[in-house]
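User: For documentation purposes, I need each entry recorded in a consistent format: the amino acid sequence on its own, followed directly by the corresponding structure tokens. There are two entries in this batch. Please keep commentary to a minimum and don't merge the entries.

Assistant: Recorded as requested. Entry 1:
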Amino acid sequence: MQGSKLYVGNLSYTVTSEQLSSLFSGYGEVKQVSIIEGRGFGFIEMSSTSEAEKAKEALDGSDFQGRNLRVNEARPMQNNKGRDSRGGGRSGGQRRY
């Protein structure tokens, strides 16, 4: 593991930042919590790589509010250059205007 930021998926849509912070604080200092509303995932930044690794190992697949969490190292955001500005990204087929 190279970073201290984790992706947390399969969250209940009702989970709060405070609840997630409390869960992860058992594995080290939580620096930041970001929940993507209405999407069922978020990001946790721990204070060190070793703490992030401990949290990942302990919490990936664990039950939290009736759902099995998916915890992985967060990947850097990808640049969307070259994507169809109409939101497509589709190739082939007929274009709809």
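Entry 2:
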Amino acid sequence: MIREELDELIGYELSDPRVGSATVTEVHVSPDYRHAHVQLALQGDAAEQQGTLEAIDHAKTFLRNKLAERLELFKTPELHFAADLPVGLGPRAPQLLKRIRRGRPKP
């Protein structure tokens, strides 16, 4: 519910030119609905990913207000954004996975 709304808000309603391609992969909401930790899959090189993360973090008040309007929650959680993979690791991930697979014994 929160993940889908945030994904739509980030993908279609943020007009900041620094926001590149970002997809919400996971949202962990605390039991008391005070905090929501949002994991983002970011595209581009390390500088683009960092710029996108900063722009989304800058827009978190806007995103929280829109989320409150759409979901009609009693408490709207404080949003905390993080990259799904550490910034800069994204382009190297396929190479690292290939190296991990080579080290495993075949069944």
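Summary note for entry 2:
The mean pLDDT is 83.
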